[in-house]
Amino acid sequence: MNPEELLNEGSERNKPAADSPLISLERDLKYFNESIKEVAEEIINEGLSSYPIFIAHQHELSLGELILDRHDLNSEWSIHASTLEEFVQRDVIKPVLKERFVNSYKDPYQYMCVFVVVPEGANFVFFPYAK
Q1: What is the reported pLDDT for 19?
Q2: φ and ψ at residue 61, rounded to 5 degrees
Q3: Which of 9, 34, 55, 103 makes an SS bond possible with 80, Cβ 3.0 to 4.6 Å?
Q4: Domain of life of the organism in this record (predicted)?
């Protein structure tokens, strides 16, 4: 999968959607919607961060805290919970880009901020919580 697919750019747009692992990610995010929203609200309400970030991956990852393990839940994606502060501390988001990230961050009560990690790269996606 090319990074352009994460952004819906380029000629890959004409490929059938079934080829994309993002279809299974969307399915998993919808299924775990309530659990992810609960964790986001807990992060905010406990004062840990105003910017919760969830990391979706299919491999081993040492960023954030594992909240949904794909092996235990028979799903395709594991989800870790993290924060903007950890992303800056771990240099995933450069300190000079922190303000730009904050300005583009969507309402955490309406959208989950998901950092999607695939072998070809990673990107942020804001996925709406189900009503």
Answers
A1: 56
A2: -150, 140
A3: 55
A4: Bacteria
Q: Two tokens at 9? A: 């750019």
Domain encompassing residue 60: 3-128
Query: Using CA atoms, how far apart are residues 125 and 93, in angstroms rounded to an integer?
Result: 15
Report CA-CA distances (Å) from 63 to 54, 84, 89, 90. 10, 12, 11, 8
- 3-state SS of the chain is CCHHHHHCCCHHHHCCHHHCCHHHHHHHHHHCHHHHHHHHHHHHHCCCCCCEEEEEECCCCCCCEEEECHHHHCCCCEEEEEEHHHHHHCCCCCHHHHHHHHHHCCCCCCEEEEEEEECCEEEEEEEECCC
Structure tokens at 118: 């695939």
Structure confidence at residue 105 (pLDDT): 96
Query: Mean pLDDT, 10 residues at a time, over the chain (131 residues)?
Result: 42 48 86 94 97 93 91 88 96 94 96 92 92 75
Q: What pTM does this model have?
A: 0.82
